[in-house]
Design a protein that fits this description.
heterotrimer; A mainly alpha (423); B mainly alpha (254); C alpha+beta (186); A: 423 residues; two-stranded antiparallel ribbon; 2 strands; B: mainly alpha; 7 helices; 4 strands
C-alpha cells in the first residue's frame, strides 16, 4: 500500500520522479549523506569501505575472467595461460584477481582486529559481528574454491587435502567426501562444481554485506573510545567528512595494491601453481595461501586427524562466540590495559601461527604450533571471560566531543558515563 | 613499555627467525638479470640467442606447448621470419576428405611443435624420465631464473666423495636431491650464435634462461610500463584526495 | 559553531572565496574520472579478439595442388571459403551473362582478381547453409556453379545468385596473391 510521505527534497525532476515511487535517493541521502557518524574515527575505520571496494573489484575482474576461462580439468590450466598470454589485458585481470584475494583478506583481517580491539562486537552490535563472521566464512570458502580453478599442482593438492578433511568425520565421512568430489578423488566433476559455486558465493557475500551494513546503520558505528554518541556534538554527517576520508584511504590502498600487482605479482603465490596438476606427483610442500596459514597451523598442531579438524573449525567458531565470551563492561581496549596486552599477544600469536603454517611440521615448529594454538584458544576461552571479571579498567571520558575537543584529555569529571548504553 | 611496542619487538624477532629457517632445496647463487627490478626489460638479442639455444638443443626433448610461433614477435622477429620459423616444421594437417591425416608446413598460428606425441612417448624415449614442458618453467620453480641458470651450469662430472649415484643419473649441484636424469645439455660452443656472440656455457645458459623467462612472463615490460603510470597516477590522486580531505575537515575542530 | 546535521561543506559556495576549494574538488573529480575510464577500457578491451584469435585472422592457401576444375573448402575466421580453379568454359559462361538477368547484378571481372581463381565465402546468403558444388560428384545446379541444399538457391560459375530464395551473390572475402601459388585470405 502506498503511504503518504513528505515530498522529496530533491530539485532534479527526474530524481524526484524516481524517488517518489521508490525512495532510493532519500535512502542514500539519509544513510550516506547526513548519517550521524562519530567524529573521532581513526584510519582503522576506513577498512570496512576498503573491504567493499575489494569485493566489487573481485566480482568485476572475476566476471571478465569467467568470460575466458574453461572449467574443465583438461583445459582449465591452458585457458588460464591463454588469459595471461593472449587475451588483451588478460595478464592484468588475472593478477588483479589473484592478488586481489590477498588484499581482500588483508583488509578484512585489519577490520576484524579493529573490531576486537575497540569492542565493536559488544552489545548492541552482536548481530553485526555475526554477519561479519559469516562474511569471513564465505570469503574463506570462496577463496578455497577459486584457488582450485587454475588447476595447478597446488590447486589440485590443496583441494585434495581440504576435501579429505571430511573423511575424518566418523561413519558418514567417506560418503560425504565422495559426494563432494562427485567421484573417487578430486577430478573434473569437482572442478566444474567448484567453478559454479565460486561464481555464486560472492553474490551471497554481497547479500550478507547488505545485512551487515543494515545492522550497522541500526546501531550506529562504534568509535575508538567505545562510548556511544550522546548528542550531535559527538557526530558528523557521513558526507563529506567520511566520504572524502574514505576516498583518500581507497586511493592509498590502491597504490599499495598496484605496487604488488605491477611489480611483485608472484610474491604472495606459490611457484607450484604454475605447474599443471598431476594426480600422481605430490609437491614437496603443500601449503595454502598466506591467509589460511594460521588455521593450517592449528590443524597440524594435533597429531590426531579428527581432533585437528575440529580444532581448526573451532578456531573460526571462536570468532562467532566473541560477543558472549567477553564479559567486560568496558568496550574499547583504550581503557582496558590488561586486555591491550592480551590483544597484542593475540595478534603476535596469529602471525606466529601463520609462520608455523608455512613451515614443515618438524623440529621447533611443532612446539611453536602447539604453544600458539594453546594461546589462541586460551585467549578466547579463558582470557576474555576472566579479564571481564577481574580487570581494573581506566575511567571513561564523559563524551566523545569532550574527549576530542576538550583538549583531548579525560576531563577529571566524576560523571560515571555508563559505558554500555544503547545507541 | 606499551603493549604495542612489545608487539613490534616480538614481531621483529619472529622475522629474524624466518630467515634462519631451513629450505629443502639448495639456494642458487643470485644472478644479474636485466629484467629484474621495477625498470627491468628483456634484452632482445639475448632472447633471440636463447630461442636459438632452445630450438637447437632443448627442443629435442622439451616441449613448449603453450607458445605459438606468432608469439615470437615478442622477441623481436618480424612476420617473414616468423613464417619461416613456423614453416621449418611439419605438423599434422586436418583430416582430408578420406579421413587421412597428412603433414603440412607449420603456420604462425600453430603452437610450437612438441618433440614427442605425448607424455608416454617422451618418457619411453628418456628411460622413464619426463622432460618437463618449458613454457612456464621459470615461474614454476622456486628462485626462478637463478635456479634454472644454476641447474644448467651446475653439472659436475664426478659427484662428491661418498655419494652413490643411481644408474643413468647425473650429478647436479642445484637440483634438489642432486641426482637428475637429464645429462648436461649445454657446453662451450654447443651452438654457434647467429649474431657472432661467443657461445660459452655461461653465455648459453644466460641466454636460454632469458628466453625461458620471457616465455613464462611475456608481458613483463607492459606490466612495468603500465605500473609506473598507474602508480604515478594514484600517487597524484592520493595527494589531491588528501588535500580534499584536509580542506573538508579544516572547517571543524578535530 | 558548526551544526553537525548541516549538509556539510558540499553546498557549493559560489563566489564567496571558495574557488580554490572548488578547484581542488574539480581536480579530484577529473582525475578520478580519468582513472575510471582507464579501468573501464581495460575491461572492455579484454573482450576484443585475443592474440591467438587474431593469429587466425588471415590464412594462406597453397594453390599448387588445386587442378583445373577442382575446388577446395577451407576455414577462415570460422567461415568456410571456397577456392576454385575454374575451367575455361566456366569462365566464358560467367563473363557472358547479361547484367539484367541477375538478381544481384555484378560483373564477373569485379568478383575475380586473378583468373582462373575464384575465391568466395561459402555461406548461402539466404539463411547461412553451405552450398554444394566443390566436389566433382556434387549436383552444381542449372548454372553449373553452386547449389544450396537447404532451400534450393542456385549460384553460377561466378558465385552469383541466379535462383532464389537467396537475395545476394556469394560474398567475396578480402584476399590477395602473395605469389603465383599462394593466396592470402583476410
Amino acid at each position: 500500500m502506498a503511504h503518504t510521505k513528505a515530498p522529496s527534497a530533491f530539485k532534479n525532476p527526474l530524481i524526484r520522479w524516481v524517488d517518489d515511487r521508490l525512495p532510493i535517493f532519500t535512502m542514500i541521502s539519509k544513510e550516506y549523506g547526513v548519517f550521524p557518524t562519530p567524529r573521532n574515527f581513526n584510519y582503522l575505520w576506513n577498512f570496512g569501505a576498503l573491504a567493499l571496494v575489494m569485493l566489487v573489484i573481485m566480482i568485476i575482474t572475476g566476471v571478465f575472467l569467467a568470460m575466458q576461462y574453461t572449467p574443465n580439468a583438461d583445459l582449465a590450466f591452458d585457458s588460464v595461460d591463454r588469459i595471461t598470454r593472449d587475451v588483451n589485458g588478460g595478464w592484468l585481470l588475472r593478477t588483479l584477481h589473484s592478488n586481489g584475494s590477498s588484499m581482500f583478506f588483508l583488509v578484512v583481517y585489519i577490520h576484524i582486529f579493529r573490531g576486537m580491539y575497540y569492542g565493536s562486537y559488544k552489545r548492541p552490535r552482536e548481530l553485526l559481528w555475526l554477519f561479519g563472521a559469516v562474511i569471513y566464512l564465505l570469503m574463506m570458502a570462496t577463496a578455497f574454491l577459486g584457488y582450485t580453478l587454475p588447476w595447478g599442482q597446488m590447486s589440485f593438492w590443496g583441494a585434495t587435502v581440504i576435501t579429505n578433511f571430511f573423511t575424518a568425520l566418523p561413519i558418514v565421512g567417506k560418503a560425504i567426501t565422495t559426494w563432494l568430489w562427485g567421484g573417487f578423488a578430486v577430478a573434473n566433476p569437482t572442478l566444474n562444481r567448484f567453478f559454479a559455486l565460486h561464481y555464486l558465493l560472492p553474490f551471497v557475500i554481497a547479500a550478507v554485506v547488505f545485512l551487515h551494513v543494515w545492522a550497522l546503520h541500526v546501531t550506529g558505528s562504534n568509535n575508538p573510545l567505545g562510548i556511544e554518541p550522546k548528542s550531535d556534538k559527538d557526530t558528523l554527517p557521513f558526507h563529506p567528512y567520511y566520504t572524502m576520508k574514505d576516498m583518500f584511504g581507497v586511493s592509498v590502498f590502491l597504490l599499495i595494491y598496484a605496487v604488488i600487482v605491477f611489480y611483485v605479482p608472484d610474491y604472495l603465490g606459490d611457484p607450484d601453481n604454475y605447474v599443471k596438476a598431476n594426480p600422481l606427483v605430490t609437491p614437496s610442500s603443500i601449503e595454502p595461501e598466506w591467509y589460511f596459514l594460521p588455521f593450517y597451523a592449528i590443524l597440524r598442531s594435533v597429531p590426531n586427524k579428527l581432533l585437528g579438524v575440529i580444532l581448526m573449525f573451532g578456531a573460526v567458531v571462536m570468532i562467532f562466540l566473541m560477543p558472549w565470551l567477553d564479559t567486560s563492561k568496558v568496550r574499547s581496549a583504550k581503557f582496558r590495559p590488561w586486555y591491550q596486552w592480551c590483544f597484542w599477544f593475540f595478534v603476535f600469536d596469529s602471525l606466529l601461527l601463520g609462520l608455523v603454517g608455512s613451515q614443515h611440521p618438524e623440529g621447533i615448529w611443532i612446539l611453536l604450533g602447539r604453544v600458539g594454538t594453546l594461546y589462541y584458544f586460551g585467549f578466547f576461552l579463558v582470557l576474555l571471560p576472566f579479564l571481564g571479571w577481574f580487570e581494573k579498567t581506566l575511567p571513561l571520558p564523559a563524551s566523545i566531543a569532550e574527549s576530542v575537543l576538550g583538549g583531548g584529555k579525560l576531563a577529571g569529571s566524576t560523571v560515571a558515563a555508563k559505558p554500555m548504553e544503547k545507541a | 613499555m606499551s603493549s604495542f611496542r612489545a608487539f613490534l619487538m616480538g614481531g621483529a624477532l619472529a622475522l629474524a627467525a624466518v630467515t634462519a629457517s631451513a629450505q629443502e632445496m639448495p639456494v642458487p647463487a643470485k644472478q644479474d638479470w636485466g629484467f629484474y627490478g621495477p625498470f627491468g626489460t628483456y634484452d632482445r638479442a639475448a632472447l633471440q640467442r636463447g630461442f636459438q639455444v632452445y630450438r637447437e638443443v632443448c627442443a629435442a626433448c622439451h616441449s613448449m606447448n603453450l607458445l605459438a610461433y606468432h608469439d615470437l614477435s615478442g622477441i623481436g622477429y618480424g612476420d617473414a621470419e616468423i613464417k619461416a620459423i613456423a614453416a621449418s616444421v611439419s605438423v599434422p594437417d586436418d583430416p582430408d576428405d578420406t579421413g587421412e591425416v597428412k603433414d603440412r608446413p607449420g603456420r604462425p598460428s600453430d603452437r610450437f611443435k612438441a618433440p614427442f606425441a605425448n607424455e608416454k612417448a617422451a618418457q619411453a624415449a628418456n628411460n622413464g624420465a619426463l622432460p618437463k614442458d618449458l613454457s612456464l618453467i621459470v615461474r614454476g620453480r622456486e628462485y626462478g631464473p637463478d635456479y634454472i641458470f644454476a641447474l644448467l651450469t651446475g653439472f659436475k662430472d664426478t659427484p662428491p666423495a661418498g655419494m652413490k649415484m643411481a644408474k643413468g643419473m647425473n650429478y647436479n649441484e642445484a637440483f634438489p636431491g642432486h641426482q637428475i636424469a637429464m645429462p648436461p645439455p649445454l657446453s662451450d660452443d654447443r651452438v654457434t650464435y647467429a649474431d657472432g656472440t661467443k657461445a660459452n656455457l655461461a653465455q648459453e645458459a644466460h641466454d636460454v634462461v632469458t628466453f625461458l623467462s620471457w616465455a613464462s612472463d611475456p608481458h613483463l615490460e607492459d606490466r612495468h610500463r603500465l605500473g609506473a603510470r598507474v602508480i604515478i597516477f594514484l600517487a597524484a590522486f592520493s595527494g589531491v584526495m588528501y588535500g580534499v580531505k584536509r580542506k573538508v575537515w579544516s572547517k571543524i575542530d578535530h | 559553531m558548526v551544526d553537525a546535521t548541516h549538509q556539510g561543506a558540499e553546498s557549493t559556495g559560489h563566489g564567496d572565496g571558495q574557488t580554490r576549494r572548488e578547484f581542488l574538488y574539480l581536480a579530484a573529480g577529473a582525475i578520478g574520472a580519468v582513472g575510471s575510464a582507464g579501468v573501464a577500457w581495460t575491461l572492455v578491451d579484454s573482450m576484443n579478439p585475443a592474440t591467438d584469435t587474431l593469429a587466425l585472422s588471415t590464412i594462406d592457401v597453397n594453390l599448387a595442388p588445386i587442378v583445373e576444375g577442382m575446388g577446395i573448402v577451407t576455414m577462415w575466421q570460422g567461415k568456410p571459403v571456397f577456392v576454385r580453379h575454374r575451367t575455361a568454359q566456366e569462365i566464358t559462361e560467367a563473363q557472358s551473362v547479361k547484367l539484367s538477368e541477375l538478381t544481384d547484378p555484378a560483373t564477373d571481372e569485379s568478383r575475380v582478381k586473378k583468373s582462373p581463381w575464384l575465391v568466395l565465402i561459402g555461406i548461402c546468403t539466404h539463411l547461412g547453409c553451405i552450398p554444394l558444388g566443390n566436389k566433382p560428384s556434387d549436383d552444381r545446379g542449372d548454372w553449373g556453379g553452386y547449389r544450396c541444399p537447404c532451400h534450393g538457391s542456385q549460384y553460377d560459375t561466378s558465385g552469383r545468385v541466379r535462383r532464389g530464395p537467396a537475395p545476394l551473390n556469394l560474398a567475396v572475402p578480402p584476399y590477395n596473391f602473395t605469389s603465383d601459388t599462394t593466396v592470402r585470405i583476410g
